[in-house]
What we know:
Layout: H1 3-13, H2 20-27, H3 33-37, H4 41-51, H5 61-76, E1 80-83, E2 102-107, E3 115-121, H6 127-138, E4 145-149, H7 155-165, E5 169-173, H8 187-194, E6 198-201, H9 211-224, E7 227-231, H10 238-248, E8 252-255, H11 266-273, E9 278-279, H12 283-289, H13 310-322, H14 327-333, H15 338-351, E10 354-356, E11 362-364
Helix pairs in contact: 6-7, 9-10, 13-15
Amino acid sequence: xxxxxxxxxxxxxxxxxxxxxxxxxxxxxxxxxxxxxxxxxxxxxxxxxxxxxxxxxxxxxxxxxxxxxxxxxxxxxxxxxxxxxxxxxxxxxxxxxxxxxxxxxxxxxxxxxxxxxxxxxxxxxxxxxxxxxxxxxxxxxxxxxxxxxxxxxxxxxxxxxxxxxxxxxxxxxxxxxxxxxxxxxxxxxxxxxxxxxxxxxxxxxxxxxxxxxxxxxxxxxxxxxxxxxxxxxxxxxxxxxxxxxxxxxxxxxxxxxxxxxxxxxxxxxxxxxxxxxxxxxxxxxxxxxxxxxxxxxxxxxxxxxxxxxxxxxxxxxxxxxxxxxxxxxxxxxxxxxxxxxxxxxxxxxxxxxxxxxxxxxxxxx
Length: 365
């Protein structure tokens, strides 16, 4: 892609009233984006303005100069610009009709050889949703997978934070310009993500997180990934719009089931009941859907296990002596309370000292 092609796509993306679909319709009349820059006055008035009236702004020299100066300042700040059709543009986005002409990115470039999984859910995450996320990431391989989400409160932030801690590359998609972070309290999380992952936006600096922008963001979350997992969603909300986009793009859509009495499982249960989403039964569901290899578990010598507290050591010693056990057994027999048991199970699994099986039992590696 030439510099003039990039310039044309950038300017077109900054024209108010011209979205990705209109832009694609317009560019279909040209052999390359740069050809639009050389359109004659006659062609402009006879063809293009009749097709898309807003395009007239594109040809104003004063407007172009101002937009290009803004682009130069943006690039000087370290923000990357990924142009549709260029080699660094996310390949999965190329297959959706409403892909943005330009995607802005801050952070690191994502690994090209890994699959992408979008994980979204309610802002009002429950203990059930938290446990699903923990078991999900423990059962997947950070060397094969990138986690995508929306940096929102609840499920999004928790899965992104934990995935980053566990060594996954993580991508955020936001509904505003990259010069701000919303919610503001997630600025430190965004910085942590961008050390090894990135933040994407289709919005130029200065654009605020307006309601309609979140719907636009959700289509990118769905479009970036081969599969989308919904963890807890009420009857309506942003997670379901992401699900609708994933379903419309013919990507794998998977939902975590819940009890019919749980308000934040109603949306997931409906997706499964309508046969839009596949039933999630554990990490194996994603491994199969994304055609991943089974993660390799490396046994740690006891001398290398870092016990964070007495509870971790006590639970580990119980499993050494008694073998494979379920949480209910540990609660009855290990002389530990519920918080100690579940905190230690999570800590030791994360450490690689024990393994969590699909039937919810645990044993030492």
